[in-house]
Write a sequence for this structure.
């Protein structure tokens, strides 16, 4: 569990053309670089870094007075793209094709209303901005369009109200993860309150962004995903304001919260949300176990979930991911399993790398012990060998630093991307194999290898999420690099759809998955979302390329 | 837990003008009648029963050939109204103002599609029919409109597929509760599977109806409400078909399931759903405890929920309901707490009736014991005195028979109705008091008393549902009887909205709550639902008076 406030705060400045904050980083270990070189061959050479001196911004187009905002070129550039790999490639190379004409930072709901009404009237496109961490092209500006602004919600931040009796906190949508947990942790008696929503983007992403993309934190098994955590919200759109009160449950018609959650800025701008919070647990622990293989691990995870063991986190790495995590260290440190231990594991029936399983529990010390004992009993039946708390401690310590690794690898000419899906248990084995196969073959035309890691996470009684990390050699030419990424992305997304997985478990649709959206919800599903968008935003000025625009924007 | 198949099945015939099946009943005990007479005065005389000989059906209007169906007058009458109190009053008195012109019973999705397209083309209104147990005017035909048909889904029934690994069962929307649990119980190895959705209407209501009204079963605390249980579904509308696949979770845009759940037939006809099922638990027990008072009971319930004690059911009756349930017996049996026990309770600090709390647990015998021990420890801290399993056993045995009591009381001139809401914990005390006050004063203009019982049920970490039962003397004149009901209903609904409760926790909006719907979701919320309805049903032929029609239909 992060210390509230850790890593966040407004004092540090965001890095342009990379993850996180200036001065932070997570360099790869020599072991990881060697592992990648064995899989992919030696890198082709470094990928360029962002150079402000070479940056030539397109001039900001004129905007009506009411939509005046920051036109600082670097501010505009910082709001032009999300954090997907092609975003980083273009930001670093200086080939971002379009910038917002201004960055607007409204102070309150009233100003959001005025701005959106003006934008609709004047035909100015508006892309809402929370933490800007979309990895699906969810906040990207495109060339050759109407004037467009980024609506940065950073001033709509902080705790507005706390109902301690009901465990309901109302916060501004622009509140980032660390500030949110810091405010809750300082509230109420004793240890304070916690939301418990910890996506990998936690240090940067915001409450409104989580809600708009139906995000899940890494401990969603215990705390719930954002769709369970958001009890009420305010959405402001050109057509008006939608205020959904926080009820514990309701049968008063369709649950409109779920139309707003996942709407990705298309239906309006979320300006605040009321979330379900709970007292900070006394203890949180993550136990590591090595399972003999992927099938045994899947069976163990399913059994734990269907037995209602109250875990807060469950992650199962496949053999390649386990090899990277345990044998060579994912990032800055070496292997976590020493050669001597390997001999013991062979005695226990684990001959290859095995599959690393992390199981987290939170609550009173007695409850945590009880949960981990129940978990260990199940895992032992499936051949698990306990690794104690060391792998979990390392994972917890580094989990918000992993995204920095991508920049450091790109510096060395290695491209890294992640993608994810979810499906019922019965489909997971074939789906995992199909996506892996599609990725491994995706760059065969270029004569290139793709190294693929996979883990299961966010499990449910009826299924789970699968999360893939891929590595391949990155050409130094930006267009070639983007094209290589797009080839892998197309291959993986096709395999997900063919394999019966959802387009996304927690990354969203954005503009990059939009061409496949109708395959998931059908023409009537698409028509329903389009009708809702038209009701809130008749002029169609809000984030017009996410969800419903079927054009392939992977290389845009 | 009901025995699968208990009470259901197609062999018995539904009673016209009353609850349930011919030959079944639940007469009031002499003690209950005496309690009511003390509260309300002697009844004014019996309310008429339905007399088929006096029934004069309006002639069925001609329909296009493609919409031909049953025009049997009693079949049409049986599909004209739901099971709200004014429905019963009108059915019994023979004053139902409008009947469907035919009852259609499609055999499959293709026929539903053909019928809906034809109805939209021909301007024929369609009201989908599951179990017909709406208590919110959700399936009612109105006079003076276009030709109208009831679409009875009874043939779309039964288990279509079972994924045992994932715990996912696909069933026809017309499957009623007992048939559904019987099919699941007979599936898989061992004890079979269970959905665990047990609304009071369980013997009659159907999977499609539960989904269309966002229903909750009495054990939703353990199994989840229908919005958690439905993983996927098929919705057929004049504009086309919406197939939502069963994913464990997804961030691929808004969760459209939640637009269909609670749509009350307005967006289309649900023809099947895939639901999350689990193995039948080894044991299910309900423990009874008497709390000193309502505030102590509320505090205890909140503590149990916020401590994540894994109960399947939690109900807290206020003092009047406890008095009726324990001292005089709610139905056919006498008091459950003998006078000798009363002396003991006084010694333990419970001087009045106290507040009865029922707490249910399910699972392995060890898990059930553990849950009930944790529960007892919390309840004892709040002054609870254990009553053992006897009150829970009686409640379980009678829970699906309680609705029969309403008919038996009406035979004796006593009107009974129920209504419900939900709100955060912080608002519950004032909300309960406000609704009680509004109901008790509602018939003061007639010089009549209203006896009000209340219980808390369906609790959540952040709040709970409140469920009210009211009794008053029913005039024998049907119009006067409906007007008296409408006065009480208006008073209660106004108090719910003013007190910050939702219009409904599990009864839905229907046509009767529709005038208050905009107060809950605002004009933009209403506009979103209207836009969705227009996308699925541009001609507006589907159940046109539910949700969005603001006209007061309480006396229609």
């Amino acid at each position: 569990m992060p210390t509230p406030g850790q890593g966040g705060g407004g004092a540090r400045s965001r890095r342009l053309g990379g993850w996180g904050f200036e001065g932070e980083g997570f360099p790869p270990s020599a072991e990881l670089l060697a592992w990648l070189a064995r899989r992919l061959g030696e890198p082709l050479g470094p990928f360029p870094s962002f150079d402000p001196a070479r940056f030539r911004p397109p001039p900001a187009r004129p905007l009506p007075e009411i939509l005046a905002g920051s036109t600082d070129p670097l501010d505009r550039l910082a709001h032009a793209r999300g954090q997907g790999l092609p975003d980083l490639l273009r930001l670093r190379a200086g080939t971002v094709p379009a910038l917002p004409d201004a960055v607007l930072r409204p102070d309150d709901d009233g100003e959001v209303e005025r701005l959106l009404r003006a934008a609709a009237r004047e035909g100015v496109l508006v892309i809402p901005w929370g933490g800007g961490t979309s990895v699906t092209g969810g906040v990207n500006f495109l060339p050759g369009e109407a004037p467009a602004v980024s609506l940065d919600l950073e001033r709509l931040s902080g705790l507005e109200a706390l109902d301690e009796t009901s465990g309901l906190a109302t916060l501004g949508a622009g509140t980032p993860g660390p500030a949110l947990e810091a405010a809750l942790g300082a509230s109420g008696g004793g240890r304070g309150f916690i939301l418990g929503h910890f996506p990998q983007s936690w240090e940067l992403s915001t409450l409104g962004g989580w809600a708009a993309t139906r995000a899940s934190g890494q401990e969603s098994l215990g705390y719930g995903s954002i769709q369970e955590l958001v009890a009420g919200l305010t959405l402001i759109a050109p057509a008006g304001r939608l205020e959904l009160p926080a009820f514990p449950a309701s049968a008063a018609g369709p649950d409109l919260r779920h139309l707003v959650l996942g709407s990705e800025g298309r239906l309006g701008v979320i300006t605040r949300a009321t979330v379900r919070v709970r007292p900070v647990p006394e203890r949180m622990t993550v136990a590591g176990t090595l399972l003999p293989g992927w099938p045994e691990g899947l069976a163990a995870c399913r059994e734990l979930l269907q037995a209602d063991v109250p875990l807060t986190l469950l992650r199962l790495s496949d053999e390649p991911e386990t090899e990277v995590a345990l044998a060579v260290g994912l990032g800055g440190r070496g292997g976590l399993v020493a050669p001597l231990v390997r001999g013991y594991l062979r005695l226990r029936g684990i001959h290859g790398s095995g599959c690393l399983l992390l199981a987290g529990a939170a609550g009173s010390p007695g409850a945590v012990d009880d949960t981990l004992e129940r978990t260990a009993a199940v895992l032992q039946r499936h051949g698990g060998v306990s690794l104690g708390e060391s792998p979990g401690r390392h994972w917890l310590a580094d989990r918000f630093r992993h995204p920095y690794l991508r920049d450091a690898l790109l510096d060395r000419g290695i491209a890294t991307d992640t993608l994810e899906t979810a499906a019922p248990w019965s489909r997971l084995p074939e789906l995992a194999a199909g996506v892996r196969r599609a990725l491994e073959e995706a760059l065969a035309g270029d004569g290139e290898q793709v190294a693929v890691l996979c883990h299961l996470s966010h499990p449910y009684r009826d299924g789970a999420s699968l999360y893939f990390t891929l590595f391949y050699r990155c050409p130094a030419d930006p267009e070639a690099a983007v094209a290589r990424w797009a080839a892998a992305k197309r291959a993986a997304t096709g395999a997900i759809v063919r394999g019966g997985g959802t387009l996304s478990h927690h990354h969203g649709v954005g503009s990059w998955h939009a061409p496949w959206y109708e395959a998931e919800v059908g023409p009537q599903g698409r028509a329903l979302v389009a009708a809702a968008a038209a009701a809130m935003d008749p002029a169609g000025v809000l984030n017009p390329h996410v969800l419903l625009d079927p054009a392939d924007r992977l290389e845009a």
